Amino acid sequence: MEEQQLRQESYATEISQLSDLKNYIGKELGVSEWTTISQNQIDTFARTTDDNQWIHVNPELAKKYSPYKKPIAHGFLILSLASKFCYETVKFMDVGMGVNYGLDKVRFMNATPVGSLVRARVSLISTEDITNGLRYKMKLIYELKGQEKPACVAEFIALAYVDASKKNKKDIPTKNGQHLEELKNKSVLFKKERDIAIVTLNRPDKYNAVNDDLVEGINKSIAKVQKDDSIRAMVITGAGKGFCSGADMNTFGNITPEEGRTYITNTYGPLMRNLTTLKKPIIAAINGTAAGVGASIALACDFRVMSENSGLLYAFINIGLGPDGGASWLLARQVGYSRALQIAVEGKKIKGEECHKLGLANKLVGNDEIVSTAIDWAHQIAKLPTLAVGITKEDIFHAMDNDLQSTIAYEAERQTAAFASHDLVEGVSAFLQKRKPKFIGK
């Protein structure tokens, strides 16, 4: 491969046209975020695969007999992160469907003890034309934090197919230096207002029901917010009378069970990942009802503003379905198991006042004040040290599924970025000088 200076921070390469991928053969495509390997992940993998060897699942025996003095992750658990790491490091803008084809030439070079931080350095080996797309092979080097040897090296093979319906975006200038960016299908509107972004789900005739265009619009909006340092918070709301009515039944009405599973995994999975991992705060301004996967979108945001007439509706049960789009995970971590089960099984609309009491809504305002309150709040949050806000979001998200010691280690790792930030220097200086700090988000 070509000699090139290796970047140490996480980054991704955005490919506007799939055919352009060929230009990156022999080059690094990106570096993923660090991921902590938790005992919960290992235990879940062991249950799923029925691989319950003590070296993986028994901390007491591992401490006594293992050379690592703690459990280690299954090799195939580490390999299962390949899709996640590739998704984080390569962004295709005109792809309608991607298929994970398999792994090749795997070499395990180091064990991965519980609590390890692992990431992947991804480069492109080759491409091959196929009908309406490309077959491509990438090299993944799984780096372990603090270790010279990687956990493993593997070649990842995938297929990607171009979606001919993907449209280019256009920017429409507006007053006061704002910009309204819309997709030609107009399913999602994007507006930059000084230091925040306002994203509007724009299918009011369908109560903003979720289809491929709407998912694509949200994903592209999140990518734009992530890359623009001048945008430091995001508001998402719905056009018309409702926030989001859930999945468009034109999408789910005539598909096989296997197609349904694939669609939910490949479409909703990345969407929820993008919402929950954006390193900037997202406020959902819930006008009307957020139902089905629309409730998942709302709960995947960091904060929610509602009125008494707003509501969350776990409508899945009403048409004979269980939750999807992460709806069960998101709700249970907000209100606990029993209350979450009641909400999901009864399938009744939980109105704004009750949502506020349950902690599902952060602010309860008048019907006409939902969006304006969310926007004002976003501008306030945008004045905070954005890097530290993003670190805090990651810390709390991690803490929900990990023990105290693991969380302390995770916080310490994330804190290194804050120690090197401009805003830390400014915050300390402002404190010593007894003045209000002026954070720039870096």
Structural summary, described in words:
The protein is α/β, with parallel strands linked by helices and 442 residues long. It folds into three domains: 13-162, Hotdog Thioesterase (Thiol Ester Dehydrase, Chain A, Roll); 169-382, Alpha-Beta Complex (2-enoyl-CoA Hydratase, Chain A, domain 1); 386-433, Lyase 2-enoyl-coa Hydratase, Chain  A, domain 2, CATH 1.10.12. It is 37% helix and 25% strand. Strand 11 (188-193) and strand 12 form a beta hairpin. Helix 8 (257-277) runs parallel beside helix 9 (293-300) and helix 10 crosses helix 11 (337-346). The longest helix has 21 residues, at 257-277. The chain is globular and about 60 Å long. 36% of the residues are buried.
Summarize the structure.
Helix content is 37%, strand content 25%. It has helices spanning 39-49, 54-57, 59-65, 75-79, 82-89, 212-227, 249-252, 257-277, 293-300, 327-335, 337-346, 352-358, 370-382, 386-399, 404-419, 422-433; strands at 13-15, 28-31, 35-36, 90-92, 95-108, 117-130, 133-144, 152-162, 169-173, 179-183, 188-193, 196-201, 233-238, 282-285, 289-291, 303-307, 311-313, 349-351, 363-365. Helix 6 packs parallel to helix 8 and helix 14 runs antiparallel to helix 15 (404-419).
